[in-house]
Amino acid sequence: QWKQLENLYFREKKFAVEVHDPRRISVSRRTFGQSGLVVQTWYANTSLIKSIWVMAISQHQFYLDRKQSKAKIPSARSLDDIAMDLTEMGTPKVSKMVTLEAKNQLIMASNGSLISSGSQDSEVSEEQKKEKIMELKKKEKLLQEKLLQKVEELKKICLREAELTGKMPKEYPLGAGEEPPQVRRRVGTAFKLDDNLLPSEEDPTLQDLESNFIIHQKLVEAAKKLASEPDLCKNVKKKRKQEYADAVKKLQEIENSINEYRIKCGKKPTQKSTLALPGERIP
User: Fold this and answer.
1) Region of poorest pLDDT, from 86-95, 155-164, 179-188
2) Mean per-residue pLDDT for 249-273?
3) Would you say residue 145 has pLDDT above 90?
4) What is the pLDDT of residues 212-228, one digit of tens each?
5) Which of 89, 98, 196, 219 is least surrounded by CB atoms within 10 angstroms?
6) Can the keyword Cytoplasm be found in this entry's annotation (predicted)?
7) What pLDDT digit, counting tens, does each position of 30-79 carry?
8) What is the 3-state secondary structure (H, E, C) of the chain?
9) Are 159 and 181 spatial neighbours (Cβ–Cβ below 8 Å)?
10) 39 bridge partner residues
């Protein structure tokens, strides 16, 4: 009987019917099958199996529509009227299913769903539908707001990258007809010197020399730290020591230039390199 039917499905050359039989124990091949579930199978070529499945689904839909009509129409009607109504309800669905099978020849298995959208078991009240729609709209709004937030964050990251590299990355999100913004590359050092460290000289030439000295002083300190790192191989340690010696030499040359210029201007020379690196022997 149709009320005992659990499922109708096909897969390639196999057509199967699952029914409930409370008089028998479960012989289903499913690992988690229900109690009293019996599976009967038939085999044929793929086209015939799909045709049988389509007709079986249509017959089951006919049963569901008839059951629904009986539940909704309490007054007795003639068999001719019932047959006419069921024909009008069932024919479009059967033709639609056959059309779908004809268009999609790559279908190799059914989805196993028997509940019709018009059956009594799948009816949902209008109030529940409205609540579901409102819930989905709220989720959609939250997702859109989150998406806009992430897009703005991505724009800021892309602009920052463009300022550093001088080229706008391809990941920058653009709207319809929007042109990417023009960004100038930011030029600067990796670290910032304290303004208090820079001496204030009235002479611009002497000011440049003093600033250059402070910058190279930082370079010497960095080279010293690299050369004094432990667990270095012989070649790397030798190379870093040489770089440190070259930096110290460059610093001494800058100091000599400063002193020569100060003497030329009638000022006293200074000894900054020895004060900047106490305990170090400047060659």
Assistant:
1) 86-95
2) 82
3) yes
4) 888 888 888 888 888 88
5) 196
6) yes
7) 545 456 788 889 999 988 999 999 999 999 889 888 888 877 765 666 77
8) CHHHEEEEEEECCEEEEEEECCCCCCCCCCCCCCCCEEEEEEECCHHHHHHHHHHHHHHHHHHHHHHHHHHHCCCCCCHHHHHHHHHHHHHHHHHHHHHHHHHCCCCCECCCCCCCCCCHHHCCCHHHHHHHHHHHHHHHHHHHHHHHHHHHHHHHHHHHHHHHHCCCCCCCCCCCCCCCCCCCCCCCCCCCCCHHHCCCCCCHHHHHHHHHHHHHHHHHHHHHHHHCCCCCCHHHHHHHHHHHHHHHHHHHHHHHHHHHHHHHCCCCCCCHHHHHCCCCCCC
9) yes
10) 18
Tokens of 165: 């590299």
Chain mean position to CA 143: 13
* Closest among 13, 18, 16 to 43, alpha carbons compared: 13
pLDDT band at residue 198 under the 50/70/90 scheme: low
Residue 60, both tokens: 């089951």
Please answer whether residues 28 and 7 qualify as being in contact, where contact means their C-beta atoms are separated by less than 8 angstroms: no
4 in Cβ contact with 16 (< 8 Å)? no
